[in-house]
């Protein structure tokens, strides 16, 4: 019951405080557009703090700002800005590395901000391309994330080919020799979502990536998160950090008229083929 009440309190606090400027005003289309849109809150390991992101649209500039907010659950659920509300801010996917450090996505990379020092956020990752859908496992000091890559499965290769196509390709035409061709309102791209893992460690007073990222879906033909709506809910890390479980659509010749997705497990050490744990499934499986 405590966890349920805490989640409800966070949402209530976020909604009431972030919408304070809208109090006692007529509900107009413009006002609806500018109401804050809070994300799910992430709870600190000790349960005393929570952090969430909220997006606001500004009619006068025709831009949105998404920044992070901190809720102190131990002191009357007080709410404060964790990162500033400034132009071109897009902070999201907040997660706790420990009770004093929060990592979050900004401009396609992970940044870390300390609660204790009050210093400016610093970059944790410097991957060649943007990453998304980040998760963290404390037991193994492991981050898992998704990135769109080409057939070679590498982050550096994706950056190199993107730059090559930008310089050489003068049209938007796409050629297909396999299904699927289109999903809902999106054409299938050559780049596929793959899940990567990397370990992090403390170097002095800062967190850093320890070694290279490993593509767990390399040479499998599988894709996760599943387009076009897949997100963090499409994969998770085991409590001991030794495995990742994920959803992937079948990659058979009839996949264009099938909704079947399967659940797979794969070791985070890499070098092993994913194991399908519900091969008999017909239809969509989700949220492992």
- What does the radius of gyration come to? 21 Å
Q: Biggest β-sheet, characterized?
A: 5 strands, antiparallel
- Strand percentage: 35-45%
Low-confidence runs: none
Distance between the termini: 24 Å
Task: Label the overall shape.
Answer: globular
If you average the pLDDT, what whole number results?
91
Helical residue percent band: 10-25%
- H/E order of the elements? HHEEEEEEEEEEEHEEEEEEEE
In total, the number of strands is 19
Q: So how many helices?
A: 3
Structural class: mainly beta
Organism: Linnemannia exigua
Keywords: Signal
Signal peptide: 1-19
Protein name: Dipeptidyl-peptidase 5
Ordered list of secondary-structure elements with their pairings:
Layout: H1 2-18, H2 29-34, E1 37-38, E2 42-43, E3 49-58, E4 63-72, E5 78-81, E6 92-96, E7 101-106, E8 109-114, E9 122-123, E10 132-137, E11 142-149, H3 155-168, E12 182-183, E13 186-187, E14 192-203, E15 206-215, E16 235-237, E17 243-249, E18 261-267, E19 275-276
Antiparallel strand pairs: 1-3, 2-3, 3-4, 4-5, 6-7, 7-8, 8-9, 10-11, 11-14, 12-13, 14-15, 16-17, 17-18, 18-19
Throw out a few tags for this protein:
3 helices, 288 residues, signal, Dipeptidyl-peptidase 5, globular, mainly beta, single chain, five-stranded antiparallel β-sheet
Describe it.
The protein is mostly beta strands and 288 residues long. Helices cover 13% and strands 37% of the residues. It has 3 helices and 19 strands. It has helices at residues 2-18, 29-34, 155-168, and strands spanning 37-38, 42-43, 49-58, 63-72, 78-81, 92-96, 101-106, 109-114, 122-123, 132-137, 142-149, 182-183, 186-187, 192-203, 206-215, 235-237, 243-249, 261-267, 275-276. The strands form 5 sheets. Strands 1, 2, 3, 4 and 5 form a 5-stranded antiparallel β-sheet that branches. A hairpin with a 5-residue loop joins strand 2 and strand 3 (49-58). The two termini are 24 Å apart. The model has no long low-confidence stretch (mean pLDDT 91). This is Dipeptidyl-peptidase 5. It comes from Linnemannia exigua. Keywords: Signal.
């Amino acid at each position: 019951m405590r966890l349920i009440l805490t989640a409800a309190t966070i949402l209530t606090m976020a909604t009431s405080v972030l919408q304070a400027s809208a109090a006692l005003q007529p509900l107009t289309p413009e006002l609806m557009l500018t109401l804050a849109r809070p994300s799910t809150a992430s709870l600190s390991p000790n349960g005393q703090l929570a952090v969430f992101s909220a997006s606001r649209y500004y009619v006068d500039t025709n831009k949105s700002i998404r920044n992070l907010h901190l809720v102190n659950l131990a002191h009357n659920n007080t709410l404060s800005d964790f990162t500033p509300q400034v132009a071109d801010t897009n902070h999201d996917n907040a997660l706790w590395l420990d009770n004093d450090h929060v990592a979050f996505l900004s401009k396609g990379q992970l940044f870390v901000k300390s609660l204790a020092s009050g210093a400016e956020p610093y970059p944790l990752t410097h991957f060649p391309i943007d990453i998304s859908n980040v998760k963290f496992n404390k037991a193994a000091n492991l981050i898992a994330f998704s990135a769109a890559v080409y057939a070679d499965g590498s982050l550096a290769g994706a950056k190199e080919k993107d730059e090559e196509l930008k310089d050489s390709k003068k049209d938007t035409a796409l050629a297909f020799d396999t299904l699927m061709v289109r999903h809902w309102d999106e054409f299938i791209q050559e780049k596929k979502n793959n899940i990567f893992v990397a370990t992090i460690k403390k170097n002095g007073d800062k967190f850093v990536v320890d070694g290279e990222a490993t593509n767990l879906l390399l040479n499998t033909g599988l894709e996760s998160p599943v387009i076009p709506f897949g997100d963090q809910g499409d994969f998770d890390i085991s409590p001991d950090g030794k495995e990742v479980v994920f959803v992937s659509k079948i990659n058979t010749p009839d996949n264009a008229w099938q909704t079947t997705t399967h659940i797979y497990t794969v070791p985070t050490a890499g070098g092993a083929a994913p194991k399908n744990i519900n091969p008999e499934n017909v239809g969509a499986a989700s949220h492992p």
